[in-house]
Design brief:
Elements (H helix, E strand, L loop, with lengths): L2 H23 L1 H6 L2 H8 L34 E6 L5 H14 L8 E5 L5 H8 L6 E5 L2 H4 L7 H13 L8 H12 L5 H4 L3 E4 L5 E2 L7 H7 L4 E3 L2 E3 L8 H11 L10 H4 L10 E3 L4 E4 H5 L1 H13 L1 H4 L4 H12 L5 E3 L5 E3 L2 E3 L4 H6 L18 H9 L1
Parallel strand pairs: 1-2, 1-4, 2-3, 6-10
Antiparallel strand pairs: 4-9, 5-11, 6-9, 7-8, 11-12
Helix pairs in contact: 4-5, 8-16, 11-14
Amino acid sequence: MQTWARYLLLVLGIVISLHFILSVTQEDYGRATSLASLTSQLKGGSKQPSPQPVPDDYYIPTGEANSTLAVDRRANATFVILARNSDVSGAVRSVRDIEDRFNRGHGYPYVFLNEEPFSEEFKSRVSVLSGSLMEFGLIPPDHWNQPDWIDEDKARAGREKMVADKIIYGGSVSYRNMCRFNSGFFFRHPLVQKYRWYWRIEPEVHFHCDIGFDPFLFMEDNNKVYSFTITMYEFEKTISTLWEHVRKFMKMHPEYVAEDNAMGFMSHDGGNKYNLCHFWSNFEIADMDFWRGPAYTAFFEYLDSTGGFYYERWGDAPVHSIAAAIFAKKDQIHFFDEIGYEHNPYIHCPQSKDTWKRGRCSCDQAKSFDYDGYSCMRHWDKFMKG
């Protein structure tokens, strides 16, 4: 065999070996390079979603969508933004986007929350962006800090293991504080208590389409409790025992499990094993009465008592998602195809050409995450079609 041929075989062998190792050890790489993912990419991710569209009755007449206070009916709702003072530029970007694409014509208020007092710079830079009420709240230490009853030696060992396994935020206590706060405390804050509905917005997110309807009113009128734009798989190593505890809770409290729920989206075998699908909670519009209700209150308190937020790295996304899937009916969960949304590195762009044009969307439909190999949207479509 010629020398060049031997070198070519050697290089191919190395590439194939690396691909195999990464496929086995890195969940996201394995899914992204799976046959299903590659087939989808070759087809341009062309499978069209079949969402429940927002009826035309909810749209503001053309020409009025950007008029100040163009509507005369609003829900008891607010935007909730968790941010640090160092996030000011990202917060400005997010507020500017949501004002331009939606809130200029609705005037919904904002609640900003921080574990430290907001700086005058932060408050002044975001306040000039909207005529809506903006309130700035301090998170109580007992809602944010790691509880004293957590075994710190055990928690530290868990963090060190995740750092060694190169898991994102694996060594961060503050990230765990945030996940626990978003799971069980943000809706209890005094500034948020007076509202029923919230739209979670994070610093440095983008809204790519005009939102010519009111998502809060649509959800309120149609008995929805939770909505999303992106769904994906969770990192299994961050929630090793979460599903075990979910199953225990359901056995202890069968009265909280809703009939016709969305368990089938989360599990393909009747609840025995979790398929890791969840709604990406950096975008969510939801009913806080659902979180404040007896089912979710008991659920969060049970999960919190296990210490899993700190011994592992339980995120608020799987916690919220699993709760919505179990305690609500499946028709109470809504996918907003119309809302073009980006949180780096993922984008949801409306797949319907008519919806994309109607929203004057700036996103590239071909780059929408919906049917990427790491997305769970196919599972959602299949589940909702029955």
